[in-house]
Amino acid sequence: IVLGFIGHIKYQSLVVLPYLLIRRRWRALTSTIVSAAAFALSTAAVFGWDRNAEYLRRGVGGLGRLFGEPAVEGAANIFPITWIRSISVTSTIARFQEWADLPAWSLPAMVLVAAGAALAAVLLLYKARGCSLFLRRDRTHDMTSPRAHALVAVEWAGMITAVLVFGPQTTARHMVLLVPLVSMAAMLLVVPRSGIRRPPILAATVFLLLAFVLPPGSGDDTPALHTWRAVGGISIATLTLLYITIAAALRWSASMPDTPDTPDTAT
User: Fold this and answer.
1) What is the pTM of this model?
2) Is residue 141 part of a domain?
3) Range of the domain at 210
4) Handedness of CA 134, 150, 119, 13 (dihedral sign)
5) Which one, 85, 100, 167, 229, has least CB within 10 Å?
């Protein structure tokens, strides 16, 4: 229900639907879809059907502005995907596409390639640690296996991070949503665990913190700052921390039992 409500605040949050489908979380998937529809229609009790439909049309209609399409009359005012204050990889690619004067179809193609490469890197990390991202995973297993508990935490932190990094429009203030990822990195840093190398995690965390104040000496509107934003510097730092944290968390989870009956050997 909460996910359905959040979907009306940030449409990107609905990216969890494929995850719930893959994980066979049928109850969560159904309740998210039903609650999203219910919340969309519930305001009709206050505004009436016609005005509520008009508000929904304006909200959804503003999305066209992201991609340079003519917006419907009265649509929400949304900045284009190339907005310089957007630090996402998607906006970075869009700015490159605009600068290079590439055809319109090249933007989704390049974004899909970038997102596919990011997912492939995660799959390789999972495979290297003997963990499964898609196979042999369902609600029962995730609820009973200590190792799966850890993987679910990693995956939710990863999904939130992916929405920020690959969203059509992400500003620096949105990065407060990195709390799950940073908290996981902090846990791996503070609590010693066998086999976990902490210097890379610390370096990636510092890099992310510096990314918010780089380049040195730049003000609110300088060429250096525009360049840093244009290349998605903060997203690069975020992905660096994400992969290093995932690798460390997977190494740690590998020491956990995969079934509730197996003795816990985690350290």
Assistant:
1) 0.81
2) yes
3) 84-267
4) positive
5) 100
DSSP character at residue 23: T
| Number of separate domains in the chain | 1
Q: Is residue 36 part of a domain?
A: no
- What is the full DSSP assignment across 29-70? HHHHHHHHHHHHHHTHHHH-HHHHHHHHHHHHHGGGGGGTPP
In the structure encoding, which two tokens stand for residue 192, read together? 């010693």
Evaluate whether residue 20 is within a structural domain: no
- Find, among 24, 25, 43, 31, the residue nearest to 4 by Cα: 31
Going from the C-alpha of 134 to that of each of 35, 202, 206, 216, 248, the distances in angstroms are 26, 30, 32, 42, 20
47 is a domain residue: no
Query: Measured between alpha carbons, how far is 75 from 88 in angstroms, rounded to an integer?
Result: 23
pLDDT tens digit string along 149-186? 888 888 889 999 999 999 888 888 889 999 999 999 99
Range of weakest confidence among 39-43, 164-168, 198-202, 240-244? 39-43
What residue spans of the chain are helical by DSSP H? Answer: 2-6, 16-22, 26-42, 44-47, 49-61, 89-99, 106-128, 139-144, 146-166, 179-190, 198-211, 223-230, 233-253
The position carrying tokens 């305001």 is 43
